[in-house]
Amino acid sequence: xxxxxxxxxxxxxxxxxxxxxxxxxxxxxxxxNISRYRIVFNDSLLPVRVFYPKRVSNIKDVIIYVPGDGTIxxxxxxxxxxxxxxxxxxxxxxxxxxxxxxxxxxxxxxxKIEEVIKYLYxxxxxxxITKDNITLMGDSTGGNYISSITFxxxxxxxxxxxxxxxLYPLLSGDYSKNSKYSSIINANxxxxxxxxxxxxxxxxxxxxxxxxxxxxxxxxxxxNNYPKTLIITGELDPLKDEAxxxxxxxxNESKYLNINLASHGFINSxxxxxxNKLLNGIKEFI
Length: 286
Prior knowledge:
Layout lengths: L15 E2 L3 H5 L5 H4 L3 E2 L8 E4 L10 E5 L3 H4 L5 H12 L2 E5 L10 H19 L7 E6 L1 H15 L7 E5 L14 H4 L4 H15 L23 E7 L5 H9 L6 E5 L12 H14 L1
Parallel strand pairs: 1-2, 4-5, 4-6, 6-7, 7-8, 8-9
Antiparallel strand pairs: 2-3, 3-5
């Protein structure tokens, strides 16, 4: 089992600030301050971080965001800056789930994040935000989580998710030399592929779990009720092919964007062209 060490989403703030979801979408305290705090709805749920756009007087659009695991993206400790910028550039409130301090293994971590997402949807909808104005987004391993949780919701007849965004998600579970995806077999960055394989082995906790749909979303066969989805990949990302295959199973409202010269983790890219294509793709979708 692997637990992140030294990659806290927020290493400065160590205390809790209790707020209701209604407080979050109608903030009466400084948006600068609240965006720096961990918000805990109750002790059984994971902390979340809240990031506001410039205009906070009338929040109508929310992104629930599950970041990637720091062991692969190498930017977990940078998500404060990433989410702050996304909230301003997209003009949306972002609620990011901070799972820094949990052991990242199946099924406990998946169930914990699912519980938080379910809670947030229920509270946001009851506070007047429609599900069509809520976007579920995840990058890398976060994309694996939200795709797996989406399928769990579908199987449980929970109709919360109106749309979601998957950024270079882990979907197949097979990152060995026997993978059927050429982007993995022919990857120039073999060390990255090795790190993904190690992550999946650690996350699955036992080998047999890599055969489960909960762990590897591409093992699902019924995509009929999967929500409208935007998948964004990078041309240089070894995970590109599996994301493209996943997209081919989705409904006609879904979109696929592959960004030239982008590699895994490009949400943290400083390249203007890559960042501009990423932001424009998200804006057009939501």
